[in-house]
Design brief:
six-stranded antiparallel beta sheet; 530 residues; alpha+beta; 19 strands
């Protein structure tokens, strides 16, 4: 009750608000998705990721400098975070829960997108670096080199012209202006400038060609990465198992339906297939030499108490809890067991510590002292007659003194009817004797006539000359719905009697069959014929 109260409070305070705003309903509908619906959802997410990547591609290519570097670092951080989330434990039933499957595949798709974006950004950054390196290369223009060359040639021509002039002119020029030296220095300076500019141009042009080649390679790499990015995302195929909560619940529902229907299917097969086969098996016949020469006379109706009057040289053995009253002058002593040749059967059926009463003409009243539902019937077994009987129903025996009642044991281990009735051994009581038999709400003696059918728990005993077998219950519907057992007992082919208990379940707790160890003990006693 405490747990139910806590659950009710938790539902009202935590779950119901989410139900009211649709969160729980949405989650429940998501958890009910099939494998095909999950795959369709993931393919939609894939198309959306491709579209987003195409949009971000143009933005990445337009970036430069610090913006490009910051974006690249941000994407690397996101990739590390995504890898960490993928390594985390997925949780309860993650392999079959649609929301968990979609969340896991979203992470994989996001990881693929981030890897593609990082590759694109790294290539774009490399292209920018190559472009910056190319832009940093500077060298003199061809016109400047040409001007420097012309300057060098003019300076050299001036030196040659001065050196070709007359001696007097050279002497006056050197004496007045140091002309030869100045012209020579000018020529050297002009030619040196020309050579350095020419060399700088040649070196710059070579470096530019290299930088240009690197830039072109970066452009090719960028184009290749762009193609690879699109191809990798297009190749993405979600890993969706066929087992989801929906499929498992449907399978469980089918299993539950099979479990519910299986007893009814089995009952139908048993009723229409097994039972007819069992009915055709040979009946059980207890062959007792000399038995059947004397019929068992009919008995009076059962009643609450039975008055036993002892004849000459006759004694009465009676259970203590059925001994109601005895004559004052009767001789009484104790008999430890009903039959010393069947010790286990006597102990298991409660026929121990019996009171033995002797005395011709003495009256003894036998009645159930503790069982309010038991009624008794007296059955006379004359000499030459025999009766198969469950000792559990026997409460008193009147027999000649010095001639104890003979009990014989008969096994039927290889009879299908014996196994179907769960009785493998039969105890036969031989006359002369008088048996007092108890039963819930009474004992009824019937003539076998042309055969009788009755419930398996009702039969207490029958004449040894009868054929004992099983037959299926008369109507199918009560058995189909578990109201009746499949087999009932059948006795036929004889003119003997049947000893039937009116209500065998009335003496059990709550009027039903005992279960557990008590039920197993009852079944074992029945197997041994007790």
């Amino acid at each position: 009750m405490f747990v139910l109260i806590v659950a009710a409070i938790a539902f009202h305070q935590l779950i119901w608000p989410m139900v009211s705003d649709g969160t729980v309903r949405t989650a429940a509908s998501d958890e009910w998705k099939s494998s095909a619906e999950i795959k369709n959802e993931l393919m939609r997410l894939k198309r959306q990721a491709i579209a987003n990547l195409e949009t971000s591609e143009g933005q990445f290519l337009a970036m430069s400098g610090s913006e490009l570097a910051a974006t690249l670092q941000e994407k690397r951080n996101d990739l590390a975070k995504t890898d960490s989330e993928l390594k985390q434990q997925q949780g309860w039933l993650a392999s079959v829960r649609p929301t968990a499957i979609i969340a896991r595949e979203k992470l994989k798709l996001r990881r693929g997108t981030l890897s593609a974006e990082i590759a694109l950004l790294e290539t774009a950054k490399d292209r920018e670096a190559r472009r910056a390196a190319l832009n940093q290369i500077s060298f003199p223009r061809q016109s400047a080199v040409e001007v420097a060359r012309l300057g060098c040639e003019h300076a050299n021509e001036a030196v040659r012209t001065f050196n070709g002039s007359g001696y007097a002119r050279r002497a006056v020029g050197n004496l007045m202006e140091n002309r030869a030296s100045k012209l020579t220095q000018t020529a050297k300076a002009e030619c040196s400038s020309y050579k350095s500019k020419r060399a700088a141009r040649e070196t710059g042009m070579a470096a530019g060609k290299v930088a240009q080649a690197k830039l072109e390679a970066a452009e090719v790499a960028l184009a290749q990465v762009r193609n690879d990015v699109a191809a990798k995302l297009n190749e993405y195929s979600p890993e969706v198992t066929k087992q989801t909560i929906r499929s498992i619940l449907l399978q469980a529902l089918l299993v539950l339906a099979a479990i519910v229907a299986m007893p009814f299917i089995i009952r139908t097969i048993f009723y229409y297939v097994l039972a007819p086969l069992a009915e055709r098996r040979a009946s059980i016949r207890i062959k007792v030499p000399g038995a059947g020469s004397a019929p068992i006379p009919p008995a009076e109706n059962s009643r609450v108490s039975v008055l036993i009057t002892l004849g000459k040289s006759e004694e009465l053995l009676v259970r203590q809890d059925y001994l109601q009253s005895t004559a004052v002058g009767a001789k009484k002593d104790t008999r430890w067991l009903l039959d010393y040749r069947h010790i286990f059967s006597s102990v298991a059926s409660g026929l121990i510590f019996l009171t033995r009463i002797r005395g011709e003409g003495e009256n003894t009243t036998v009645s159930a002292v503790r069982d309010p539902f038991a009624e008794l019937a007296e059955v006379n077994i004359p000499r030459g007659a025999a009766c198969v009987l469950h000792p559990r129903a026997l409460v008193a025996v009147a027999q000649p003194e010095g001639q104890p009642m003979r009990i014989t044991s008969h096994w039927r281990l290889f009879s299908l009817n014996a196994w179907l009735t769960l009785q493998l051994r039969y105890l036969v009581f031989h006359g002369p004797c008088r048996l007092v038999i108890k039963g819930g709400r009474g004992i009824r003696l019937e003539q076998a006539e042309r055969g009788r059918i009755f419930g398996q728990d009702q039969l207490v005993g029958f004449s040894a000359d009868l054929a004992y077998s099983v037959t299926r219950t008369e109507t199918f519907a009560p058995y189909f719905f578990g109201r009746e057992q499949l087999f009932k007992d059948k006795v036929e082919q004889g003119s003997g009697i049947l000893i039937i208990e009116e209500a065998p379940l009335s003496t059990h707790p709550k009027g039903g069959i005992r279960s557990g160890l008590e039920g197993a003990f009852d079944a074992s006693l029945k197997a041994f014929g007790i």
